[in-house]
Amino acid sequence: ELAGLDLRAEIDRLRKERNAVILAHYYQDPVIQDLADFVGDSLDLSRKAAATDAEVIAFCGVRFMAEVAKILSPQKTVVLPDMAAGCSLEDSCPPDQFARFRAQHPDHIALSYINCSAAVKALSDIIVTSSSAEKIISQLPRDQKIIFGPDRHLGAYLNRVTGRGMLLWPGACIVHEAFSETELLKLKAQHPDAPVAAHPECPGHIVEHADHVGSTSSILSFALASPATTIIVATEPHIIHQMQKAAPHKEFIGAPGADGNCNCNMCPYMALNTLEKLYLSLRDLTPRIEIGEDMRLKALKPLERMLEMSG
Ligand code: 13P
Ligand code: SF4
Description:
Blueprint: H1 7-17, E1 20-25, H2 30-35, E2 38-40, H3 42-51, E3 56-60, H4 63-72, E4 77-79, H5 88-91, H6 95-104, E5 109-113, H7 118-122, E6 126-128, H8 133-138, E7 146-149, H9 152-162, E8 167-168, H10 181-190, E9 196-198, H11 204-207, E10 212-213, H12 216-225, E11 230-234, H13 240-246, E12 251-254, H14 275-284, H15 293-309
Helix pairs in contact: 1-14, 3-4, 4-15
Residues 62, 87-89, 115, 173-175, 201, 236, 267, 269-270 line the site of iron/sulfur cluster.
């Protein structure tokens, strides 16, 4: 049915017709990044979703990100090209189990990484992203007891840099856990002058070799600002597209998995969104994100605190 269609032109036509904005995460296919109205990290994308006056948000990212857009902008139609675009961190934190964890620590507040379901957000006091977590934690009293979920690697990293002792939920991202320390050390030996930029979802044995640790946006800024001509990037490799576009003379190398290349570090959930599915979602305004009003209001509170506290 789609054969012969110029999908880019059709998406452009529908974007205008529907008064839609296309938001994309850095882990999306370059074709999608290039036609999006805005590309960013989770915090940037939630700010855009809250501020847009478009009637429709076509969210090219994973489901929890599109849910955040809907929670912040309930009057807008939010479509996700493939509703199966989940996240292993979200899957590692079932809401009923998280509710029990919370109940076991009644004197703690719950700080949750934005990579979780709306139901887990509704059980949380403050949401953080990797770009805002340190700033938010620094505003909490030193003796404030905190539980943090779902990412234990981000949580351990935050405990190290802030000196806190947050209790950690044992979740992890399958993509960032796939980097191999041995292969990374081999690569560093081949490129001794290349700095390493890593996402804090990487386990400690990867982060400890990094010259810069931060969100996707901050990894991008670091890579572009660095005087080095070769940079090793320890996060999902589709972000390299933006680096290569902005600095074509530099070499950006995706950190390797156990097989010695970065192909195993692609996010399988992000990859479910394709140009075809984006076209169909704009044409049919489905699959649509819907969240019950009770749940939405509960999840909105900690998201609003995130936006306030991240400045
Ligand atoms: P960022 O907020 O750094 O874009 O992270 C999103 C994500 O899913 C990382 O795996
Ligand atoms: Fe989730 Fe990991 Fe994919 Fe990010 S890279 S969306 S944390 S599975």
